[in-house]
Automatic annotation (TrEMBL):
Organism of derivation: Streptomyces albiflavescens
Domain Plasmid pRiA4b Orf3-like span(s) in chain numbering: 6-171
InterPro entries according to UniProt: MM3350-like_sf (IPR024047), Plasmid_pRiA4b_Orf3-like (IPR012912)
Cross-referenced SUPFAM superfamilies: MM3350-like
UniProt xrefs under Pfam families: PRiA4_ORF3 (PF07929)
Record's protein name: Plasmid pRiA4b ORF-3 family protein
């Protein structure tokens, strides 16, 4: 794979219906620690918690020999998922256990004058931090959409007064990716 290649990837949050996902184009030589920060920005997470990449070649995150986690700072994406159809997973927040499925859709040449990483499209808002994982998020959505729910007011206040689960703004994501 040429060093100047770009991988188009789709990141889908597991166990959520309707799906929450992002389609990104990233440099193939982007290291996994930089991919982590890119995912945080594109999904809307706050980078408060630990994370881990699970790949065919092993688990990568902050190096931890006791847990068997290799150093993500030394591994480019193309080394663990170089071709269309390759899949890895990324888990964020070991308490809430947000599992993201990452699939390489295609490899492309870089477009001159284009900033990478960039978000092409996606669907739905990222769940709020610390809402309890996929099951807690389902309960959260149920509560904020039902004014009669006993936790309705409390959870709306917790998220700042409003939360639109269908909200997605590709321009905002790309501004944040560029500012990183």
């Amino acid at each position: 794979m040429p060093a100047d290649s770009v991988l188009q990837i789709k990141i889908t949050l597991a166990d959520i219906r309707p799906p929450i996902w992002r389609r990104l184009q990233v440099p193939a030589d982007l290291t996994l620690d930089s991919l982590h920060l890119t995912i945080q920005t594109a999904m809307g997470w706050e980078n408060y918690h630990m994370h881990l990449f699970q790949t065919p070649t092993g688990d990568y995150g902050r190096r931890d020999s006791e847990l068997g986690h290799r150093d993500e700072r030394k591994v480019p994406l193309y080394a663990v998922a170089p071709a269309a159809g390759d899949k890895i997973s990324y888990t964020y927040d070991f308490g809430d256990d947000w599992v993201h499925r990452i699939e390489v859709e295609k490899a492309l040449p870089r477009e001159p004058g284009t900033a990478y990483p960039r978000c092409l499209t996606g669907r739905r808002a990222c769940p709020p931090e610390d809402c309890g994982g996929p099951w807690g998020y389902a309960n959260f959505i149920e509560a904020i959409t039902d004014p009669g729910h006993e936790e309705h007011d409390e959870l709306l206040e917790w998220v700042g007064g409003a939360f639109d689960p269908s909200q997605f703004d590709v321009e905002d994501i790309n501004k944040r990716l560029t500012a990183r």
